[in-house]
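Hi there, hope your week has been kind to you so far. Thanks so much in advance, here it is:
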Amino acid sequence: MQPEMTPIPPLHTLDRAVEVLSGVRSICRYLHIGPATFYRWTAHHRFPATLTPEGRWLTSTTLIDGWILARVEVQEPTSHTPIEPGGVV
């Protein structure tokens, strides 16, 4: 008797399947940003994309989501006073 084989589940991040994005338009569409913002992020904010020898930008949704989460984690807390539930500031 052979052991039962369990299928390997697909890679998921934030409940979405991993997708490779090719080209500035696809990347910008995923992020809802314009090309100028994309180029600024790649030049100044270590956005996780690479330029192929053919001149096409590549990245993945996993890399983008991880980059966004990492940037959120290092942001300084806001200067706003938290509102207590049912309370007044």
